[in-house]
Design brief:
With 215 residues, the protein is an alpha+beta fold. It has a single domain, classed as 3-Layer(aba) Sandwich (L-fuculose-1-phosphate Aldolase). It contains six helices and seven strands, in the order H-E-E-E-H-E-H-E-H-E-E-H-H. The protein has a seven-stranded mixed sheet with strand order 3-2-1-4-7-6-5, with helices on both faces. Helix 1 packs parallel to helix 5. The mean pLDDT is 95. This is Fuculose phosphate aldolase.
Length: 215
């Protein structure tokens, strides 16, 4: 993918997340790995105002190019991409149900087999830290250990993926799981799947969506 296409994809997906209700105003941010660094959304600008030229190129040392400053959350974007070779895109949202669960500082338990899409039997909630800090980045990395998504206490969620499409799709799935969790708590709490079932689903997900080569 060209740099211009990557920049435009960030904007298009950001607008789609806002339209789907996972963000509002200037909340949320997106990054993709690009070359030896990353491309990331700028600080304090809604996706509806962005053009491809506004996306900020960043270096792994924290430096950046262009006329706009990167999102205040650039640190966890950089750190995740730097430490996770399997991740090429990071999506952060303030999606309402995921944020409600994070405000309770709960993890999302194995209430539905789709929890395995995030890589394990739960979606952990990272410890609270002030936004934009190294402490928040460290907490997120701990919660993402072996996983592709986590909640951020009193804040929102992070979803990662091998591609931007996959990271965005996972963010949507995490929000749906959070919604199901909140609603099930109103009925007395979910009946949870056991670890053996989650292991079976994780194995099935290894080939989910894969198609044989065309003859």
């Amino acid at each position: 993918m060209s740099e211009y296409a990557a920049r435009q994809a960030i904007i298009d997906h950001g607008r789609a997340l806002t339209a789907a209700g996972l963000n509002h105003g200037t909340t949320g941010n997106i990054s993709v790995r690009h070359g030896d660094g990353l491309l990331v959304t700028p600080t304090g600008m809604g996706y509806d105002r962005l053009s491809a030229e506004d996306i900020v190129p960043m270096h792994m040392d924290g430096g950046f190019d262009g006329r706009l400053r990167p999102t205040s959350e650039w640190r966890f974007h950089r750190d995740i991409l730097q430490q996770r070779a399997d991740v090429h895109a990071v999506v952060h949202t303030h999606a309402p149900y995921a944020t409600v669960v994070s405000i309770q500082r709960r993890e999302i338990p194995p209430l539905h087999y789709m929890i395995a899409a995030a890589g394990g039997p739960t979606i952990r909630c990272a410890d609270y830290a002030t936004f934009g800090t190294a402490a928040l980045s460290e907490a997120a990395l701990t919660a993402l250990d072996g996983r592709l998504a986590c909640l951020l206490a009193n804040h929102g969620m992070i979803a990662c993926g091998a591609t931007l499409d996959k990271a965005v799709a996972l963010a949507v799935e995490v929000e749906e799981l959070a919604r199901q969790y909140v609603l099930s708590l109103q009925l007395g709490g979910p009946v949870l799947l056991d670890s053996a079932e989650i292991d079976r689903v994780l194995e099935k997900f290894r080939t989910y969506g894969a198609q044989p080569d065309a003859v």
